[in-house]
Amino acid sequence: MGCGLLRIFVAFTLMSVGGCKRSIDESCHPDDLIGLTSFKAGIRIDSSGRLGKWVGRSCCKWEGISCDNTTGRVTQLLLPGLISTDVSILQSQMKGSLSPKITLVTFLEVIDLSELGFIAGNIPSSIGFRLPNLRKLYLLRNKLTGPIPESIGKLSKLEEIVLSENSFSGSLPWSLGNLKNLNRLVLDSNRFSGPVPDSLVYLTSLVALDLHHNYLNGHLPAKIGELQVLEQLDLSENLLGGKIPVSLTNITTVQDIDLSVNSLEGEIPFPSCSGQMPFLRFLALHDNHLTGRIPPALGSLVSLQRLYLENNKLSGTIPSSLGNLSDLRELYLGGNRISGLIPKAFSKLSQLINLNLSNNLIQGLPRQMSSLQNLQILVLSFNPLNFSSIPNWIAELPSISKIYMAGCGLGGEIPEFLQRKAIQELDLSSNHLTGSIPSWLGDDLSQLYLLNLSNNALVSKIPGSITGLNELGVLDLHSNRLTGSIIHVFKMGSMLPGGLLRYIDLSGNSFSSGIEQIGLGEQYGIEFLNLSHNFLKGGLPTSIGRLERMRSLDLSHNELGFNLPDSLGNVRSLEMLKLQKNRFTGKIPDGYLMLRKLKELDLSDNLLVGQIPNGKPLGDFPKKSYSGNRALCGRPLAPCKP
Question: In 3-state terms, what secondary structure has residue 226?
Fold first, then answer.
């Protein structure tokens, strides 16, 4: 009897346990089911197909859903746009609206709808009342709009909010300061406006604060230094004004500070003494209205690797203490009013890769800079250096690949020591260079991508060796005294279809021939071509129609003639066409009506005849675009006579 009762009891217990397990595995809580099916109903397109598998009532088995093993309630909604597989990462998309009924899933701890691209709608205003367990909210890279609800401040368990790259707007709610457990607040690339709430200083667990690329204004919170565990601070690309709070120096944990592209004023207040901010690696204050001198105490930021102070109103000399920044990789001081000499102590910056001192009042460079063995990029343009020639010590920089010394008062010829360097970008424009373009240019600088020798006094022809510059993307030789043919420019080879050459400016010289080569070679990806103010003769070749990517063409002020080629109508990306002051004859081809993107046109002072093709865009330009052609008629000029 006892054994029978025991068997009945065990059997009943197993049935009860099994029934409980089935209710968790197979049956979704009604609120969760309504919330999730409403979310699915709001999505019109799901390129991943995950929502298509949401069938039946067993929502805990649906892809992207996690449930609590005890309660059976949904705790995680994980449908990120980036899907990891064994072999790659796939990008998926969802299009539709975020259903406000998602808040019916009241046990949610994590919502990840990031990088889906096209989810619209708002964050439900009731989110703070309905989702008390929410810890992580990821909605970045969608099309969401509206404000952050004030109720969000009631989500006391919230640890991370990432809403980047949407169209959220309105002011940041004061209630954000109630989220004592929040360690990441990332709201960048939206349309938030108004001040940065002072309440954010109460987020004592905050490790990362990123509000960049919004429309925030007002002053920074004066007590921002109370964020004692903050590591990343990015408030760049806003409308913030006032002074930088001194309290920032109190954050001993901070590693990255970016306050760039604002309207901040006053002097740089930190560090006030050595030992502060010992872990600071990145400091960006560029594009503000900062004044005063560069603080010598910056040299005590022993971990600093990148320092951006360009485009402010800083003055005085560069402190020699910056030479103590032994880990410094990048230093940008351009666009200020810095004067004097570069300190000899810069020779100790052994890790320096990029040095930009352009657009200042610097008058000298120490030879000791030749010891910068890792320096790759040297930008000194538009300083009154007034060297008689390019300094020889540049030849001793083993890693140098980009040299920008425009407007530095350089004289003499282009030095031969440059041929021994693996230079990729060379800008010596707006100087007083004389002599010829070296014949070794195309042979020894085969990696060259940018060559700018414009606004000098060079007198040679373009050497044939230039055809060896297969990686050239930018060629600017304008405003020199160059003569002969331009044919070699259009005979450059290329390892890629269409070539890499995008920008050519040979204007303001005395070239006379070579126009027939345009479009015939391997370089037909040209987007900007300026050959104006030369003595070029002949007609435009039909091959110019191959330059289908070209957006700007200026052949004005030459001696070109014959009929305009019909093939130019194939260049439908053209936005500017300037052919004035030549000797073109015949009619304007009807095919030019296909130049729908054309914003600027000048065909004046030629010998064109007949009716201007009727229609947009040709009829929309002013009369001056066609003036000086005595036999042209039709809109916008006088009607043609019968």
Answer: helix
Are the C-beta atoms of 391 and 372 separated by less than 8 Å? Answer: no
> What's the token pair of residue 537?
């003769």
Q: How far is CA 189 from CA 168, 206, 237, 540, in A?
A: 9, 20, 9, 47
3 state SS of 603: coil
Tallying the residues shown for the chain, one arrives at: 642
Burial of residue 374, with CB atoms counted within 10 A of its CB: 0-12 exposed, 13-18 middle, 19 or more buried: middle
Look up the pTM and report it: 0.91
Q: How many Cβ atoms are within 10 Å of 42's Cβ, its own excluded? A: 18
Q: Alpha-carbon distance 320 to 18, whole Å?
A: 77
- Listed in sequence order, the residues at least 6 apart from 623 whose beta carbon sits closer than 8 Å to its beta carbon are 636, 637
260-314 tens-digit pLDDT: 999 999 999 989 888 899 999 999 999 999 999 999 999 999 999 999 999 999 9
C-alpha to C-alpha distance for 236 and 221, rounded to whole angstroms? 15
Instruction: Give the residue among 594, 602, 599, 601 at the shortest CA–CA distance from 628.
Output: 602
Q: Residue 285: exposed, middle, or buried by beta-carbon count in 10 A (0-12, 13-18, 19+)?
A: buried
The structure tokens listed for 335 are: 């666009």
- CA distances to 447, 514, 557, 560, 563 from 490, rounded to whole Å, are 18, 9, 21, 18, 22
DSSP state of 461: B
SS3 263: coil
Enter the tokens of residue 642.
């019968």
Q: Which two tokens stand for residue 63?
A: 């892809």
Contacts (Cβ under 8 Å, ≥6 apart) of 454: 429, 430, 476, 477, 478, 479, 480, 505
DSSP tag of 639: P
- Reading the block at residue 338, the tokens are 């810095």
Q: Tokens for 478, please give them.
A: 């304008």
Residue type, 4: G
pLDDT tens-digit readout, 37-47: 999 999 999 99
- CA separation, residue 441 to residues 59, 405, 418, 472 (Å): 68, 18, 9, 12
Whole-Å CA distances, 533 to 81, 537, 580: 53, 12, 11
pLDDT of residue 333: 98
Residue whose entry in the numeric block shows the structure tokens 């805990």? 60
**DSSP string over 315-368:** EEPPPGGGGG-TT--EEE--SSEEEEE--GGGGG-TT--EEE--SSEEEE--GG
Tokens representing 71 are 């309660």
Q: Scan for tokens 């030459």, then name that residue.
A: 558
Q: What is the rounded distance in angstroms from the CA atom of residue 491 to the CA atom of residue 489?
A: 6
Structure tokens at 579: 């052919």
Question: How many angstroms separate the CA atoms of 426 and 450, rounded?
Answer: 6
